[in-house]
Specification:
With about 180 residues, this protein is of the alpha+beta class. The protein contains five helices and twelve strands. It has a domain of about 130 residues: Apoptosis, Tumor Necrosis Factor Receptor Associated Protein 2, Chain A, CATH 2.60.210. About 20% of the residues lie in helices and about 40% in strands. Strand 5 and strand 6 form a beta hairpin.
Length: about 180
Amino acid sequence: QYATTGCSLTLHHTEKSKHEAVCEYRPYSCPCPGTSCDWEGSLEAVMSHLMHAHKSITTLQGEDIIFLATDINLPGAVDWVMMQSCFSHHFMLVLKKQEKCEGHQQFFATVLLIGTRKQAENFQYRLELHTNCHRLIWEASPCSIHDGVSMAIRNSNCLVFDTATAHLFADSGNLGINVTISMC
């Protein structure tokens, strides 16, 4: 199905649909979590789409930034999203708050590369929460936006913490996460 966009595999019809679901050449969906955006397009068009359709997303330049999630006490499921540009690539930083068990909320923080899975293998990210007395660090390779935030959470490829931990590191309901991107 994606031969016109670069896929050169020839598969038996029984394997076709399984491959198409994960094919690197399938169109990219809008990677912005928490929205009902139906946009699809090429990898080259993703940043343009985000800048025009999701103008509230802030983009910071540099390998080392602070991702500020404001008002983490908002009720219900909430997503905070920011972009980080460095090494000639764009990374989507996501903090997701959702209820996991009855009345028990968890936070999930991860980084996605606006790029392919192969490109994502070239990078590492580090998320750090800290106070004078406490430090919480997560290091991993980013996922591609082809995989998305849901897959990162499902595969535990993210920093996970509960509400009590969030409050330990928060300042007046705002949570600052140090984000460092490096090349492998």
